[in-house]
Amino acid sequence: MSESKGGLMQLRVSYEGREDGVTVVRVDGEGPEGLPNLDASPELRRVLARLVEEERLLLVVDLSSLPSVDRKGLGVLVDALESLQRRGGAMSLVISGAQVRANVAGAGLHWILRFHDSVPSAVARMLEDYEEESIEQRRAAVECGDRERLAREAMGAETRFAGQGGFFFEHLTETISLVTSGPELDVYNASSMREMLVDLVEQGRYFLVVDLTDVVFLDSTGVAVLTGGLRRARLHSGALAFVARSDEVFKQLRLTGLVGVFPTFPTVDRAVEFLGREVQRAHG
Fold first, then answer.
1. 15, 26 contact by CB (below 8 A)
2. CB of 85 within 8 A of CB of 49?
3. Which domain holds residue 208?
4. Are both 22 and 59 inside the same structural domain?
5. In which element (H, E) is residue 15 found?
6. Is 147 exposed, middle or buried (0-12, 13-18, 19+ CB in 10 A)?
7. Are 43 and 97 part of one and the same domain?
8. Same domain flag for 239 and 208
């Protein structure tokens, strides 16, 4: 057990290792910001980094006592999760407050940061997941993905194909393709995106990353096209993963009630890792 205090909010971080291999991290703090940002309290980052270095790779972070979580606080958790996943590990959150859940969903991170109502349920689900796929298997999948990424970087633009409407696609692996959108996905050009998604699925490309990083305008027609692409892929036991960081994209997903439908990630590599696991499940 280790515990410490730090930051302007007297944040208290403690952790305890369990016999089943899961480490439970508890975060307590008071104040209007809920979880403080890194400048206010770097203690959570230090504790999580220490656990990763010690190869404690199955973490349940208990935030049930916090009233809210700001974006910088969420960034601490996302950074730690990335380090864990690169080593084959995972993180789940325990959240009891509606505001914290809204903070996580509003930032589009609910596909990245899995959360539960209690520590026992979080631990049980994590152990269940790792019965199906071990830490070693997940680490091997990440390393394989790294090799594929380096290979496609070496090939460069030769693998990238332009479509109509400023959209592009490229095949990242034998099973996963990347579709990149231009700055607008709306009633005027969404048909071009639809045609590209339909063509890829008809070619047997059932696992697609749709990169919306550059999108500054997305309307209901564009959302409908993305929903249709997801539906087509799932008809073939496939999946879509979306890459987005702009407030405009998340706003449209919230307005249409699709925040919980589209698995959304901050980078292409993270989306590819997600789809890689989906490919293994589909072919398992």
1. yes
2. no
3. 137-283
4. yes
5. strand 11-17
6. exposed
7. yes
8. yes
Q: pTM for this structure?
A: 0.58
User: 54 and 121 in one domain?
Assistant: yes
Q: pLDDT by residue for the chain (284 residues), tens digit each?
A: 334 444 445 578 899 999 999 999 998 865 444 444 444 457 888 899 999 999 999 999 998 888 877 777 777 887 888 788 888 888 999 998 888 888 777 665 665 677 899 999 999 999 988 887 788 887 876 676 566 556 555 554 445 566 666 788 888 888 899 999 988 888 888 888 999 999 999 999 999 999 988 888 888 888 899 999 999 999 999 999 988 877 778 777 777 777 677 788 888 888 888 898 888 888 76
Listed residues 132, 147, 172: the one ending a domain? 132
**The amino acid at 59:** L
| Other C-beta atoms lying within 10 Å of the C-beta of residue 234 | 12
Residues in the chain: 284
Together in a domain, 251 and 196 = yes
Residue in 267, 284, 276, 282 with CA at minimum distance from that of residue 112: 267
Whether 141 and 274 share a structural domain: yes
